[in-house]
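pasting for ref
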Amino acid sequence: QVQLVESGGGLVQAGGSLRLSCAASGIIFSINNMEWYHQAPGKQRELVATITNGGNTNYADSVKDRFTISRDNAKNTVYLQMTNLKPEDTAVYYCNADIKTSRYRPSRLYWGQGTQVTVSS
């Protein structure tokens, strides 16, 4: 059984910063890509940032130069450092990870439960 647990959300004023964490636990053989999504009320879930197991990153245009995704492979953890936050960043933030639980089984995508980020103007 694999679990992803997010933390670090909260209420912050516009221009402030938050750091989200997402730790994977359980039977893990290897982790490929790790990602952060967000979902605002009444909207579809959107991709925010991706990091490969080699450390290559990609970002949505709306967060480039403000958000930084990183990972600690020894801790099976992915982070999202968010700076210069805007009210439109308000959403539930979800992490996912493409995880192999065995050398002999294909990987599958696991999701965290989400953490609320609220940015006040």
